[in-house]
Structure formats: structure tokens, C-alpha cells
């Protein structure tokens, strides 16, 4: 712990450790060893969540709007950064009637 004083470094390392431990089938042992580590603030984890949320918005948007977004609209969706902004888009999708309506002001 002394060598990893930066919270973001610890969060990233903890997340990667749990990922690899899960793949190796020894997650339970590492859960105990990493108890007390805050891995919820990892920039790596946040980026993964943003990518996943964008994918859900794209799939759900196709269903809700009834068509795929244009190339420009898809690029606009991919340009939305930050988990909070992507989550807001997910909420707006519930009431959007078009990709333009959903993405208007999204950046």
C-alpha cells in the first residue's frame, strides 16, 4: 500500500487484479486481499462503463426511434464523454422521438 499512494493508481490496479483473478478462477482469494480498496473511482472502469452505456443507448435507440442513427449522429454519440453525460442521454432516450432530439445539446 505504501508504494501505491495515488488513489487512481490503486483503483486501476485493484480493478485489473480482480478482472484477472476472475478469469483465473481465484476471485474469492483476491476479494479478501483487496478489502478496503476503493475501486469505484477508477478512470479505467469509468471508461468501460461509458463504452457499455453508449452501446446500450445505440441498441435501445434503434428500437425506440425505429432506425439506426446517421453516421454523424453516431459520431456525436461516440463523442459524448463522461459517465454522467452518457447516463443523462440514457434518461433522455425514454422520451426522444428521434436521434436528433436525443443528441441535441448532448456534447
Summarize the structure in words.
- Helices cover 68% and strands 0% of the residues.
- It folds into 2 domains: 1-41, no CATH class; 43-103.
- It has 107 residues and is mainly alpha-helical.
- The protein starts with 6 loop residues before the first helix and ends with a helix.
- The chain has helices at residues 7-24, 27-33, 43-65, 71-79, 83-93, 99-103.
- The longest helix is centred in the middle third of the chain and has 23 residues, at 43-65.
- It contains 6 helices and no strands.
- Helix 1 (7-24) packs antiparallel against helix 2 (27-33).
Alpha-carbon distance between the two ends = 38 Å
Instruction: Report the radius of gyration as a whole number of Å.
Output: 18 Å
What is the N-to-C order of secondary-structure elements (H for helix, E for strand)? HHHHHH
Number of helices: 6
The major pleated sheet works out as: none
Helix content: 55-70%
Number of strands: 0
Sequence stretches where pLDDT stays below 50 over 5 or more residues: none
- Overall form: elongated
Approximately how much beta-strand content do the residues carry?
A: under 5%
Structure class: mainly alpha
Number of domains: 2
Overall pLDDT score: 86
